[in-house]
Design goal:
The protein has helices spanning 2-35, 49-54, and strands spanning 39-42, 63-71, 77-84, 89-94, 100-101. By secondary structure, it is an alpha+beta fold. It starts with a helix and ends with a strand. It has two domains: 1-35; 38-103, Nuclear Transport Factor 2, Chain: A (Roll). Strand 3 and strand 4 (89-94) form a beta hairpin. The model has no long low-confidence stretch (mean pLDDT 83). 39% of the residues lie in helices and 28% in strands. A five-stranded antiparallel beta sheet has the order 1-2-3-4-5, with no helix packed on it.
Length: 103
């Protein structure tokens, strides 16, 4: 019974810490968006067909799109945040036709 209680406390603590971390990430993203009105979050489904197609190529195998933004610049482009199975993150910028923009 003692092991069960310890395990339950450990699981509860882990879940709480994860939820708190996600809330902090969301808050930071909101602050970044407020500081940069030219960077607007969009739904992944709203990405142009060229970008969606590029994300399915071998170059991005093992990576999943998590969030997407349109950057309203002289020539607008799309910023996609990717995550892999190891929870590593990567950010890639695309032209509307799906060409990767090197920065």
């Amino acid at each position: 019974m003692k092991k069960f209680i310890i395990a339950a406390v450990a699981i509860t603590t882990t879940v709480f810490a994860n939820a708190q971390a996600e809330a902090e990430i969301s808050q930071v993203q909101t602050e970044i968006a407020a500081a940069n009105p030219d960077r607007v979050q969009i739904k992944l489904e709203e990405l142009p067909a060229g970008v969606q197609k590029a994300l399915t190529t071998d170059a991005f195998q093992g990576w999943n799109a998590k969030t997407a933004y349109i950057i309203k610049a002289e020539k607008p482009y799309y910023e996609v945040e990717l995550v892999n199975a190891k929870s590593e993150k990567n950010v890639v910028n695309f032209n509307e036709d799906g060409t990767v923009i090197k920065k």
